[in-house]
Hints:
Elements: H1 3-31, H2 35-64, H3 73-103
Helix pairs in contact: 1-2, 1-3, 2-3
Amino acid sequence: MNDEQMAVIMPLIMYGGEAKSSAIEAIQSAKAGDFAKADSAIQAANEAIVKAHHAQTELLTKAANGEAVDVSIYMVHAQDHLMTGIAFVDLAKEIIALYQVIQG
Length: 104
């Protein structure tokens, strides 16, 4: 694992975690009835996912161009963070919608 690969992997971990945290914040805001804050947190989560996808796309482009991309435990960990972040954002949107129905 070289520094260039770690420079791509770390944003996946960082932004995936940021997306998850923002999604949780959005759920908590909706639970408290603050839907404007929930929407803002979801927007922040979506922005983090986009940033993570840019890093992921860089790796995919390298692989598509025939460059060797090592699959390491770091890479697996990074992909796990990204996918967990995406899942949390998707679920948060549904939970927020339910809170909107419940709270009228």
